[in-house]
Amino acid sequence: MDRSGVWGLVVAGGSVLASAARAGNAELTVRHACSLILPAAVIAFPEVSDVIFRRSWRGLAHGGEGPAPAVVIRLAAWILLIVLVLVHQCWGFLGVR
Length: 97
Fold this sequence. Notes:
Layout: H1 3-23, H2 26-44, H3 46-53, H4 70-94
């Protein structure tokens, strides 16, 4: 795991800790943590996730000739992670639970 993976885990973990400290609601915190597992895992291990997500139910590769570059996969995962964190934090700021 490189710097991007570590930073992804730091952002996800910090968001979960902030959610736990602010909300005080275990169910909301667990839901938020579960929503961040996929993007954090994709950021940490982009090559493995490319292999996993490109397989169809029959085990055949689909979605292009070759594997997607790790940069593209990480970029998409970072965008998803930031959107999930910002949506959750903004809802908490507005008082929506």
